[in-house]
Amino acid sequence: MRLPDNKGHFGPFGGRYVSETLMPALLELEQAYNYYKKDRKFKEEFDYYLRQYVGRPNPLYFAEKLTRKLGGAKIYLKREDLNHTGAHKVNNTIGQGLLARRMGKKRVIAETGAGQHGVATATIAALFDMECEVFMGEEDIRRQSLNVFRMKLLGAKVTPVTAGTATLKDAMNEAMRNWVTHVKSTFYVIGTVAGPHPYPQMVRDFQSIIGREAKKQHLKVEGKLPDYLVAAVGGGSNALGLFYPFIDDADVKMIGVEAAGYGIETGKHAATLTAGTVGVLHGNKTYLLQDEFGQIAHAHSISAGLDYPGVGPEHAWLKDSGRAEYVSVTDDEAMEGFKLLTREEGILPALESSHAIAHVMRLAPKLPPEKTIVVCLSGRGDKDIHTVAGVMGVSL
Amino acid sequence: MGRIDNTFAALAGKGKKALVTFITAGDPDLETTESLILDLEKSGADLIELGVPFSDPMADGPTIQLSSERALAAGTTLPKILVTVKSVRRKTDIPIILMGYYNPIFMYGVERFIADAVAAGVDGVLLVDLPPEEASEFKAVADRSGLAVIFLLTPTSDEERISKVARLGSGFIYYVSVTGVTGARSSVADTVFSEVQKIRGRVPLPVVVGFGISDPAQAGAIASVADGVVVGSALVKQFEEFNGKELHARLSSMVSALKAGMSA
Fewer CB within 10 A of the end CB, N or C, for chain B? Predict the structure, then answer.
């Protein structure tokens, strides 16, 4: 059965837990999305921008030196880092931007953690001539000053969020508040496969281009499907984009890599599926980091893009149904992944993607050379240079 | 008939409208909450809304966000709030409604929460992020236990949603006067009056209006068309400046003035 159901549920997860003010807007969005996803012109336009503007298809690159160094399965990198704006996020913002335009909305808002989704939203707002406001936690603004400046250059207003933990979840709260207040004029561009229905489904569908391309490319060079898919999971959009087109291919193992921060046992992490419990936040039922009274906990990760105490509801379902496996990687291990890929392949991965690389460092050596792993290299690491330098004790 | 229905019936019999006052449970602590409930009633409140603090209050403006943070920092939890309600219930019959977000209740367990809330003397629940589409399980259990489930209607609700809420709601309907978050505002939108009249014509329950109502004149104007008025942020704002006896005196005088404004 294809999920979600018509109310947006993936098994017990997902749904639409929002205030009444937003319900009509979500129903309107759902109706528009269901119409345009089957509309030939809309699909042609989406494909056009992915090809001519984003630069798709991007390569499925055989990381030969990394493979040799780890001495096991063959490692392929799906190069989302080569997209315009430097990450997978733009696949989704092109889709939502085109939808916003069709719905006659002149203003877009977004939340952002690492700034990648904020930049991708500001980019399409410039391209499609829309007013843009991005909500970003003050702590993240400090960590990601380069992306903040990029958004401003693109003409977006960046609004700092000081409430709560001043990170991604608080930015999302503030974006929701702004949306409630300006719901008639404004389209809320959610950056991950979370939030109320239809966002988890819609973002997954727009991101599925990652897996569709990877499948075709892998079949062409290897003559078979990959044995493993590995991707980092914060909210989970790059992972679901890679996984979804393989969901019926039962032999393809899917592994999501969460951020273990300082270590699961320290409580300072963002490994929602590994160590969380089921609850309701930001419009959907899913795994959350929370206390026994249902108060949301602080997440921690070296990577601002993974620093989120929830996860997309479809990942919750893939975990509980056993279709996908979820593991976690600490800040230190992610740094090792970052350094290894940089030195072996000359590719600086985003700290988010470095988590996936770090898990491949554990997985590949245990597998025979005829096995293959496709890793989603979701973004490039330029934005993280200051964080990396800080960890290495270098002042720039 | 429960305490909510009785209260609205008694007020209607006298040609009066309900004053609903909102404070956050546990701000600054639950002992204060308990004594304030009794003071609010003495000063003229007809129903009490107690906010259940949540770490991520997405539908609230800065005043109630800060109040929730203070309450959580003071160690307020849903089990402790139920203990407070149980204690105050021995001293008053004023209807008490818990208002908040779904997650703390989901974590407590829906069936267990409803049983414990009714046993403590809670009369109704308003969960901001549990719209009719997701409320059927909660509503079924609440109906069996006699707990009212109060739903919101807003300026964005169309005819279809108004009828959906009319079918599902109990206790009263809470009409949100603005498309926005909670917080005091200097004026009330003109459309409120026609919207409330429209809803009252279609819904068999009392309709109260909230969000942004802060002074006696606004309360009076709303009371001329609605069955009741909710005042929240304007009261909660006082907790930023006052505490102890001063806070009690401050809230009492505000509530008396609001009540007077509604009878003028």
Answer: N
Identify the closest residue of chain B to A19 by CA–CA distance.
Answer: B129
Distance of residue B156 Cα from the nearest chain A Cα, in angstroms: 6
The pTM score is 0.96
CA distance B149 to B134: 13
Q: Does A219 touch chain B (CB under 8 A)?
A: no
CB-nearest to B156 from A21, A169, A173 is A21
**8 Å CB contact of B181 and A163:** no
CA distance A382 to B200: 58
Residues 244-273 of A with CB under 8 A from B: none
Compute the residue count for chain A.
Answer: 396
Dump pLDDT digits (tens) for B32-77: 999 999 999 999 999 999 999 999 999 999 999 999 999 999 999 9
Contact B55 A25 (CB under 8 A): no
Active site residue A378: yes
B109 contact partners, CB below 8 Å, separation of at least 6: none
Tell me how far CA of residue A194 lies from CA of A256, A349, B44, B114, in angstroms: 15, 24, 44, 29
Nearest to A320 by CA among A296, A355, A285, A295: A285
- Annotated catalytic residue within B49, B116, B195, B227: B49
Confidence bin at A383 (pLDDT 50/70/90): confident
| B3-263 CATH fold | TIM Barrel (3.20.20)
Residues 6+ apart with CB under 8 A from A85: A116, A119, A120, A123
Binning pLDDT at 50, 70 and 90, where does residue A275 land? very high
| Geometric angle at alpha carbon B17, from B12 and B20, rounded to 5° | 125
Nearest to A293 among B78, B129, B161 (CB): B78
- Alpha carbon dihedral B21, B27, B31, B34, in 10-degree steps, equals 10
